[in-house]
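Running this now, will post back.
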Amino acid sequence: MGNLLAGKKGIIFGALDENSIAWKVAERCFEEGAEFILTNAPIAMRMGAVNALAEKTGSEIIPCDVSVDADMENLIDQAMAKYGKVDFILHAVGMSLNIRKKKHYTDLNYDFMHKTLDISAMSLHRLLKTCYEKDAINNWGSVVSLTYIAAQRVFPDYNEMADAKSLLESITRSFGYHYGVRNKVRVNTISQSPTVTTAGSGVSGFNSFIDYAEKMSPLGNADALACADYCVSMFSDLTRMVTMQNLFHDGGFSYTGVSEAVMEKFGSQE
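Update: finished.
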């Protein structure tokens, strides 16, 4: 066990099972000396194995539907009752009924889309607003949300989740400014490699794209544990001056135009 987060208190959203990035983040935060509350939507918690993670890390579980103001306020109130103010928050939240129902981007159900934007993006604003109003985060605290490069580039099967990630990153910048001015709280997104998780596996052609990204990235794809390590560094005091950023954690994929491995694959088909 290390001491990078010794004495720090936090909240971790989104740990569903051992494949979740949030699950790995919780394990690494615990190993580095942090204490935290685990939270997820009530239905997701019934489907997952979060009780085992809570037992392993000595954490309390508080359900929260991130689209409901009262749930968010209850979560933050309980966290403050337990810890006073918190030092870090992981926002690992995303959902698309259009993807689940295999609706094409050109033929979206807008009721579904509203839900996607609310849960996957507006929930970050709801979280930050609640914390801001209750003064729930210590000065120099850190909030990290998980995003994907589809916010900047077209990945057709990522559907309206790309729009949600674009909004998520905009909220990070805008709220990050206001929270930074008032409390030096830093707010960032981590744009992760395609990662095998319960949520990610719902995207059509996901396994093929993981193989493509692996061939495109000079360092290969970053896995969930590597992302957890990056989150730990962002929660630590070593990154005190980093805020309002979208940080690519993708083995170099985001700045690679084409790779020799990909060109060789195309060449083999001639």
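Residues 9-267 form a domain with the Rossmann fold fold (CATH 3.40.50.720). More later if anyone needs it.
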